Amino acid sequence: MGIKLTLPADYVPPTQPPSAKKPDIRKSQLLRSYTSLLRSTPLILMFQHNNLTGAEWSALRRELSLALRIVATQQKQLGVEWPDSLADNIRLNVIGTRIFSVAMRIAEFYDPSTVTAETTAAVVRGRGKKGAIYNHDLSDAAYASIKAAEQDGRTGPESSVYGQLKPLLVGPMALLTFPDVSPAHLAAALSVLSPSPPQFPAPTRKKSPGYYDPLVQSAVQKLLLVGGHIENQAFDTDGVRWVGSIEGGRAGLQAQLVSLLQSAGLGLTSALEGASKSLWLTMESRKTQLEDGTKDDKET
């Protein structure tokens, strides 16, 4: 007589934990890839696009790759060291706008480390193994966190990066992602994808004749830079171009940030000094008025 093996009633395959959404559908996989991208990518440019053709995307990526390789060579000649793979890992990809919007909320408002067995049990409603912790990005805990953030008013532009970028997440979109923050590589990308002379002029016909291919020119006309997500902060187009204008590579970027912090500190100091001086002058004026009033009373 054969032995019949049965699995426990609460058995959950380790590769298929309870999820708020079906993990095997394409949208779920896209969501997980977007949350991973947001957590691991320090520099993301956001573009709206007007339905480029496959040939236009290919031609545009070709010219972008060429411009980035030229910058990599120039940076080495200047003694600015970047990983050899940096230029190759700067990628331009079309995204699903609505799914990316959800991913932004999960990346900002959901912290997997805060999930406990108790909070898991409260949201999975009997699904899964008792005492287990399910904290992946498709989990019920993740979706409960973003719903709580919406109910608490934490998704507004005053209190969140997502709230500042939400108005930009409209229509067909594409992302240009950088594995590191390099102003020089960013400047080269802007010159190709969103030229704006004199700061970011388009490549010359002599240096990059392929850039003037009708397919490339048509693609550039259909792209619109709308903002950026840099070091977990929201940047408008002017802010993106400011980062791209910083000279000196990583050292230059750090110097600019230090300068900004110092300027902010000086501004705060000046404001505090101004307030204290104003208070002192007010008190001195009041003191003089009281003394004059006392003298007048004595004379009368």
TrEMBL record:
The record's listing under InterPro entries reads: Ribosomal_uL10-like_sf, Ribosomal_uL10_bac_type
The domain of life for this entry's organism is: Eukaryota
Q: Which family does it belong to?
A: Belongs to the universal ribosomal protein uL10 family.
Q: What is this protein called?
A: Uncharacterized protein
